[in-house]
Amino acid sequence: MKKTIEGSEAMAETVQNCNPDVVACFPITPSTHIAEDLDHIYSNGGIRDFIPVESELSAISALIGASATGGRSFSTTSSQGLALMHEALFNAAGMRLSPVMVVANRALSAPLNIWNDHQDSVSERDSGWLQLFCETNQEACDAIPQAFKIAESIAIPVMVCVDGFYLTHAVEQVDVPDKELIAKYLPKFSPKVKLDSQNPITMGAYAFPSDYQDFRKDLFDDLNNSKADIMRAHDEWAKLTGRKYGNGLFEGYRLEDAEFVFLGMGSVMGNAKEAVDRMRAKGEKVGALKLRSFRPFPGEELAKAIAGKKVAVFEKAISLGGDAPIYTELTTAALEFHPNVVISSFIGGLGGKDVTVEVVVQVLQKIKGQEPLKEWV
Amino acid sequence: MKLPISKPGTSVENKTGDWRTFKPDIEVAKCIKCGTCQRFCPEGCMGDEGKVPIVNFDYCKGCGICANECPVKCIKMIPEK
Amino acid sequence: MKEIRFHGRGGQGAVTAAELLAVSVGYSGKFSQAFPFFGVERRGAPVMSFCRIDEKPIRIHQQVYEPDVIVVLDSTLDPNMMGKGLKADGIAVINTKLPAAQTGISASKIYTVDATGIALRNLGRPIINTAMLGALGKATGLVGLEDIIKAVRERFPQMLADKNARAVEECYNEVKS
């Protein structure tokens, strides 16, 4: 049933309804409300175990331990908190564990900034975690059960990425998935191997040069092959709830006959859809493409979807000393699969700079020329 | 999917005795059975405490800690042949 | 779509006011969205919060730059800052004892109410965020009195809810243009 609820609270309730064994959080803006709400739920007996850890590194370490023993585990963080988890993120993925984390996306210091951009999770793109970006709080609540299902079935951890403040602090109508619905969808977590005193094993012990690369290649292949698992988890959820987001990897909006396309991630895509409708009303052939799965990056599928079009890749993250990350990867994919596209790079919305409908319209107007652009807006 | 896990017992399978260049040589008559070498041996291969040490040469790396710690100096490190 | 912007000072409850408005609008089956502009989180600093109301789902997530309505919790704030972007037919609902002409805010319609006085009488403290929702409801017709009181009762424990509900009702009745 739809109710008017803060995004953070809706996500916390969804996590509760996924029946986690261990939740471990350290509060950091703007993820704090999710952690507070989960702690509150725990105090009322709604969650089996909540560990109020002393740092984010401890939070992810607790998740690793919990997941290794076969427990469903969850945490939430933002920005510097995610950066502090950095080394252990690689461990969680490398050990083939299944924790799920909501990242309330926020800029990284310095200068200190508490507002939204995507630099924190995009900077962890090589850690071996899946990353699903959400446009709305409804989408976030729908992504959490899917994240558990994917993580636990293919033994790869998942980040559900939501825009800090724009989503976490927005009060809007959300249909929070209840326990019964999730129970129908999400099977019990039963990992292939787990820590068990009756049948002891060591996880993540060192691998010699002769073996290490094989493990990395295996994870590399599994990450790239996880696209099918993401789409399957998305489709099964859509069948149960009627709510779907494109093909699960990305969602096109008025894309088929569009000549000019705005491609981005997160809450800004609502503004993009509004901008597309306004420009379509004036007869302009524009569309929007929302990237949901940043990791794995669906390069081939995206290249196919934008073939023959002019595309503005809008990103709330940069790679210092290089270009913007999605632009770089999309350009590579286009070169490989469908070279007949013109791809421009737009960087904006860093540190909470508001990306309004008008900004999206301006970006779409700018890419009408022949030459690709690289601009900050 | 390749899981980076290992079963217990690898330290038993991995016989480290061939790392040795010196080995402990015990003068049994001088031994006072104090148990010091057995407590200090990092590989636990000096036999049972309270008895004259019987070295397990499958695992003794020849580190010499036993000789260093022996209070009556009844252990000498001699070159491995 | 109607866009409402709340102006107050840290501690006066501008964020809660926007949230309660969104919740009370939600009861009627309409769509709403409330969110704060997070700035310096200090008591007394000028703060803003936003609320959108629409017949269809709201998909934009951005600040409100051209509000249909501004709600002023503290009339000592800079009137130019508060009035910025207000639509030509925009409405201002102001907590003040002064007559509309002396508030310094220009709007096509100005409603005033002494919400501070009403809050002091009912709550014993100058917390005016819930009370001002009553004035907003009467002035704009965007939300019904019953729905506001329902949202207040859902949010606060009964004792506090009773007092707040009385303040909401008094503001609803006393607001004038």
Structure write-up:
The complex is a heterotrimer of chains A (377), B (81) and C (177). With 377 residues, chain A is an alpha/beta fold. Chain A is 42% helix and 19% strand. Chain B has 81 residues and is of the alpha+beta class. Chain B has a single domain, classed as Alpha-Beta Plaits, CATH 3.30.70. Chain B is built from three helices and three strands; from the N terminus they run E-H-E-H-H-E. Chain B has a two-stranded antiparallel ribbon with strand order 2-3. With 177 residues, chain C is an alpha/beta fold. A six-stranded mixed sheet of chain C has the order 2-3-1-4-5-6, with helices on one face. Classes of the chains: A alpha/beta (377), B alpha+beta (81), C alpha/beta (177). Chains A and C meet through strand 1, strand 8 and helix 10 of A and helix 1 and strand 2 of C.
Name some characteristics of this structure.
heterotrimer, A: 377 residues, alpha/beta, Rossmann fold, 7-stranded mixed β-sheet, 6-stranded mixed β-sheet, 13 helices, globular, B: 81 residues, alpha+beta, Alpha-Beta Plaits, two-stranded antiparallel sheet, 3 helices, 3 strands, 17% helix, 15% strand
CATH class of the largest domain in chain A: Alpha Beta
Give the largest interface pair and sizes. Answer: A-C, 27 and 22 residues
Strand content of chain A: 15-25%
Radius of gyration of chain B: 15 Å
Q: What would CATH call the architecture of chain B?
A: 2-Layer Sandwich
Q: State the share of residues found in helices of chain B, binned by percent.
A: 10-25%
Apparent shape of chain B: elongated
Global mean pLDDT of chain A: 97
The main pleated sheet of chain B reads as: 2 strands, antiparallel
What is the name of the CATH architecture of the largest domain in chain A? 3-Layer(aba) Sandwich
Number of domains of chain A: 2
**How would you sum up the global shape of chain A?**
globular
- Could you state the oligomeric state of the chains shown? heterotrimer
Number of distinct helices of chain B: 3
C-alpha end-to-end distance of chain A: 39 Å
Q: Strand arrangement, largest sheet of chain B?
A: 2-3
The CATH homologous superfamily of the largest domain in chain A is termed Thiamin diphosphate (ThDP)-binding fold, Pyr/PP domains
User: How many E-type strands of chain A?
Assistant: 16
CATH class of chain B: Alpha Beta
